[in-house]
Design a protein that fits this description.
- By secondary structure, this protein is α+β, with helices and mostly antiparallel strands.
- The protein folds into 3 domains: about 5-35 and about 80-140 and about 320-340, 2-Layer Sandwich (Nucleotidyltransferase, domain 5); about 155-185 and about 260-315, ATPase, nucleotide binding domain (Nucleotidyltransferase, domain 5, 2-Layer Sandwich); about 185-255, ATPase, substrate binding domain, subdomain 4 (Actin, Chain A, domain 4, Alpha-Beta Complex).
- The protein is about 40% helix and about 25% strand.
């Protein structure tokens, strides 16, 4: 057995989808080993880390004055360098619990329109979190690989990855990105729109977690066959006391309409800028939707109605990016071709 294969056997290589809402880590040979919210709880005075991931999310909106729950990723990029490093270290340690002596090689999915400075921030955070080598791959490309699209063939593939902070839209052919765009409207923006709408219409103040829950329960992009309603608890802004109101799917559709329109328009722009030969391929193959936003009711139908193209939801939309980056841990040839420099 050669030295290289011995090291391969003990290898700790990781694929990371460093998302605004959730971070997923795939360990070579073991599958997805971490799937946690990208949140860190800190002591406001000492800056000591109190919790990371699920534990920190449970504290969101419920912390005393001296504890703050921080989301270090904003719009798919690092907003707080130090906290991201702490979070990455925690997740890498969680993923490498057995072989903690080996520094892992890491492939990370990043949004397509981030700057050189932001790319360097992601790389440095991973290196300081004890990675031996770091490769960056565009999230849309990784999602296309994860969704099983034939990206190496000479044909047009269109992918729309609706994440927490960004919606990545890309047209891919021959392992290269022909067109890509990152729209900074996605899941978090939709949650904020729900908070503002309920505040305006019902004088009710709700938190981020409640808004996300409403979006998952009754959010939709096109009218539903059967109307849905939901009882929502919050604080009445006029009387200042807790109150419950009943909200319909129609109201939430209205709240989400601006975000949905921006994403749909982004897709239309991508289609306009696609070379005609590849457009014909996309007409035949359709558009593939991935990311948490792909799970919104009738989003695929809305995009299909507005573009006239067939729209398919990936088999595992939430894990497409990390599954795509994981395939590159074993296909170094493909990784060299598509990694961002």
């Amino acid at each position: 057995m050669s030295l290289r294969s011995i090291f391969g056997w003990f290898s700790n290589d990781l694929a990371i989808d460093l998302g605004t809402a959730n971070t997923l880590v795939y360990a070579k040979g073991r599958g997805i080993v971490v799937n946690e919210p990208s949140i860190v709880a800190l002591d406001r005075n000492t800056k000591k880390v109190l919790a990371v991931g699920h534990e920190a999310k449970d504290m969101l909106g419920r912390t005393p004055a001296d504890i703050v729950a921080v989301k270090p990723m904003k719009d798919g990029v690092i907003a707080d360098f130090d906290v991201t490093e702490v979070m990455l270290k925690y997740f890498i340690r969680l993923a490498c619990h057995r072989n903690h002596l080996l520094s892992p090689r890491i492939v990370i999915g990043i949004p397509s329109e981030i700057t050189q400075v932001e790319k360097r921030a992601v790389q440095e955070s991973a290196l300081r979190a004890k990675a031996s080598e770091v490769y960056l791959v565009e999230q849309a490309m990784a999602a296309a690989v994860g969704a099983g699209m034939p990206i190496t063939e000479a044909c047009g593939n269109m992918i729309v990855d609706v994440g927490g902070g960004t919606t990545d839209i890309a047209v891919i052919s021959l392992s290269g990105i022909v067109y890509s765009r990152s729209v900074r409207v996605a899941g978090n923006e939709m949650d904020e729109a729900i908070i503002q709408f309920i505040k305006r219409k019902h004088n009710l103040l709700i938190g981020e977690r409640t808004a996300e829950w409403i979006k998952i329960q009754i959010g939709s992009a096109a009218p539903l066959d059967k109307p849905l309603t939901l009882e929502v608890k919050g604080r009445n802004l006029i009387e200042g006391v807790p109150k419950t109101v009943t909200i319909s799917d129609e109201e939430i559709r209205e709240a989400l309409s601006d975000s949905v329109v921006i994403i749909v328009n982004g897709i239309k722009v991508a289609l306009e800028r696609t070379p005609p030969e590849l457009s014909a391929d996309i007409m035949d193959r359709g558009i593939v939707l991935t990311g948490g936003g792909a799970l919104m009711r009738r989003f695929d139908k809305r995009i299909s109605d507005e573009t006239g193209l067939p729209v398919f939801i990936a088999e595992d939309p939430l894990s497409s990016v990390v599954l795509g980056t994981s395939k590159m841990l074993t296909d170094f040839k493909l990784l060299r071709r598509i990694c961002v420099r």
